[in-house]
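> example.struct
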């Protein structure tokens, strides 16, 4: 198991104060993303727990792309991964962040 945290710059999420979402499930080749309120309006705090070792650079690229495409400032994401591919990670991030945007 590998665990790391990131804090990435992002535009503020309009619904950060009421943020709460769950997307996906922890199973082979999949992951879950828990969304909660973060500590800073212009940053997205992310905690990754993954079963795959040695892919931090790939994670950082996928996560940076997602928070650049979505307003994720003020959010905290907890990601529990069971070997998802970068495409699945990107899809789940889009689903979780779009769920909040749809509520705005």
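> example.seq
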């Amino acid at each position: 198991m590998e665990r790391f945290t990131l804090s990435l710059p992002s535009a503020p999420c309009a619904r950060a104060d009421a943020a709460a979402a769950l997307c996906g499930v922890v199973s082979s080749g999949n992951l879950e993303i828990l969304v909660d309120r973060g500590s800073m309006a212009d940053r997205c705090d992310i905690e990754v727990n993954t079963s795959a070792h040695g892919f931090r650079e790939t994670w950082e690229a996928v996560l940076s792309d997602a928070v650049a495409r979505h307003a994720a400032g003020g959010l905290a994401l907890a990601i529990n991964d069971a070997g998802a591919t970068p495409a699945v990670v990107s899809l789940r991030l889009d689903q979780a962040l779009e769920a909040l945007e749809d509520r705005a």
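> remarks
The first helix runs from residue 56 to 69.
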